[in-house]
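MODEL INPUT / OUTPUT PAIR
PAIR INDEX: 1
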Amino acid sequence: MNPPASQYTLQQKVFLFLLAIVTIGFGWILMPYAGAVFWGVVLAILFIPLYRRLLRATGQKANLAALLTLASIVVMVIIPVALISASLVQQAVGIYNMVGSGHIDFGQYFRQIIAVLPDWVVSLLERFDLTSMATLQQKLSSFAAQASQVAAKYTLNLASNTFDFLVSMTIMLYLLFFLLRDGHSLAGRIRTAVPLSRKYKQRLFSNFTTVIRATVKGNVLVAMAQGALGGLIFWILHVQAPLLWAVVMAFLSLLPAIGAAIVWAPVAVYFLVTGAVWQGVVLILFCVFVIGLVDNVLRPILVGKDTKLPDYVVLLSTVGGMALFGLNGFVIGPVVAALFVASWDLFSTAEEFHQE
C-alpha cells in the first residue's frame, strides 16, 4: 500500500515532480506521431492472439513470430486499405470531372424532385427560398469556391503530407514489432508502476484491452460490413461511384440511429420521386432489412453484450472524438467513453470508497 502524499519525504516529492515533468515532456515529443503510436498499440492488442499462436508454431522464436504477425497485418489491413484509398481517390476525381463536364447535372436532379413534390411541400420550401435555382446555384458556387481553395491548399502540401504519412506508417510498423514481441513484459512493468492495488489494476487493465477490442471490432468492422453492403447495392442499382459512397456509409455507420441512412435514404427518395420505383423499393428493403440488421447480428458475435455502450453515448463520443482527434476520433472517442464507464463502475463497486 502506497503512503499518503502527506507522508512523502522532500526527496520523494522532488522525484515525483521530476517524474511528472519527464513524462509530460516525453509525451510532448511523441505528440507529432501520436496517431502512429495509438494505432500501433491498437493493432498490437488486436493481433496479440495471432502472435501467440505463431509463437507456439515457431518454437518460441519471438522475433520470427513478430515478423510473421507484422507481415499478416500488412497483407490483411494495410494493403487493402491502401488499394481502397487509391480507388476512392480515382472515383472522387471521376465524379468531379463528370460534374465539371456537365455529365452530372445536380440542377436537373433538383428540378426533377421539385416537379413531383406536393404543392404544400413546394410552398414550404419557397418560404425558405429553397426552390430558386438561381439562389441554389449561388450557394453551390460559393461552396465550390471554398472547396477549391481547400483542395488547392492540400494539393500544394501533397508531397509533405505523403512524406508525413510514410514516416507515420514506418513508425507504427516499427513500434508494432516491439509491442508484439515485448508487449507482455512492457504491460507487466506498466501494471507494476501504476499506484493502485492489485485487484483494481487487474480489472482496469482487463477492461482497457476488452474495450479496445470491442470498439474496433464492434464499431469499425461492423461499419466496414455495412459500407460494403451499401456499396454492393449501389453498384447493382448503377449508382455513380459506388465505392465512394460505400466508404462514406462505412464512416457514417459508426454513428448509431442515423448512420448509413444519411447516404442511402436521399438516393431512395430520388429513385421514388423520379419514377424509378422498383429501384427505390429494392434499395429501401435491402438497407432496412440487410444493412440495418448487420449491427444487431454482428455486434453481439464480435463483441458480446457486456461491453456495449448505449447508442447515445457512442454517438456523442464518436462525434466528440472526431472533433478533437480527426479520423482517429472514431476509435478514441468510444474508447475513452467506455473506459469512463468502466472506471466509474469500478469505483461504484469498490467497498472501501463507500464505507460509512
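PAIR INDEX: 2
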Amino acid sequence: MSKIKGKIHNKKLGQIPGSITYTGKKESQKLFIETFDYTKEKYIEKELLTVKESFEFKNTDSITWINLNGLNHVNEIENLGEHYDIHPLVLEDIVNISQRPKIDEYEDYLFVVLKMLYYDDNNKIVSEQVSFILGKNYVLSFQESDGDVFDEVRDRIRQAKGRVRTMNSDYLLYVLIDAIVDHYFSIIEILGDKIEDFETTIFSGKVNDDISQDIQNLKREILKVRRAIFPLREVVSRIEKHEGTLILKKTKTYYRDIFDHLIQVSENIDIYREMIWSLMDMYMTTISNKMNEVMKVLTIMASIFIPLTFIAGIYGMNFEYIPELQYKYSYFILWGVMIVLFIGMLVYFKRKKWL
C-alpha cells in the first residue's frame, strides 16, 4: 500500500496494468446479481447465483440490465468481463473504488464511472462508486454493496412505465444515470437546509463551542459532493457527443437534459461553497464582537478606577506631613471627590453610548 497526504491507497505500486485488485474495505460483502431482460411486450427478472447464469442474455434481441453488487468478488467480475469481451483495464477500474468519474470509449461498448451519493444512518454523506458498461443490447452495472437509488427504474421496467421498455440500451443507461443525478438534488437540498440552520444559529448568538468543527464538517461534505459532480459534466457531455452507434440520436436529447441538471447542481454547489466560507467569517466576526464587548467592559471599569486608584495611592503614601491629613473633614471630602468622579464618568460614558 502507498500513503499519500494521509490517505491510504490500496493499489500496490508497480502492479501489472490490468491486474484486478479490489481496493475497498468491504471484503465480506456477499455477491448479489440481478437481471432484468425485457422487450416492449414482456420482461424477465431474475436473481442469479453466479455470473455464468447471465451469459445467455448476451446475444438476445431483448434489452438486458445486469446489476452486480460486491466488488470484492473479483473472480466473478473477471468471468463476466471475459464473456462480454471487456478490456482488463476496465475491469481493473471497476474494482478500484478511488476512480474519478470518467468515460472510456471502446469499439463495442462504453465504460462509465460515476459516484452515487447518499446519507448514511449517521447523517454523513457516503460516496459509492458505480460503474456502467453500455453494449448494443445490454447494460452492466457494478456496485460495491447493497442499496442504491435504482428502485424507481426497476418499477418502471416491471410496470412498463414511461419509455424504458420501448427504447434501446442507451436509454436504459440514461435512466440509471438520471436516477443518480436526481438524487444529487436531495443531497443539495439537505446541504442548503444545514447552511440555513447554521446561519440562524450564528445570528441568534446561541453559538456552542463545536460549531466551528460542524462548519468544517459541512465544508468537507460540500467538497465531496463537488468532486463527484464536476467531472460528471464532462462524462455526460462526451456521451451526448458520441459519434458511434451505441448512442442513438433520439436519445442524446435526454443526456442533454442530464447535463442541464448537472449544471444546475454545480451552480448550487458553488453558491454553497461561498456561503460556507461566509459562515466561517460570520462565526469569527461573532467571536470577535463578543471579545470586543468583554474588552469594552474591562476598559470602562479600568477607566473608572484609575483616577480613584490614583487618589487612594496619593493618600496611602507614608509621609508624615500631608496637608490634608490633619483636617477634620478630609476623609469625607476624599470620599466625596471619589464618588463624584465615579458618577461623573458613568454619566460621560452613558452619553457617549459606551454603556
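PAIR 2 NOTE: The beta strands are 2-4, 7-9, 32-38, 43-48, 63-69, 102-105, 110-119, 125-134, 138-143.
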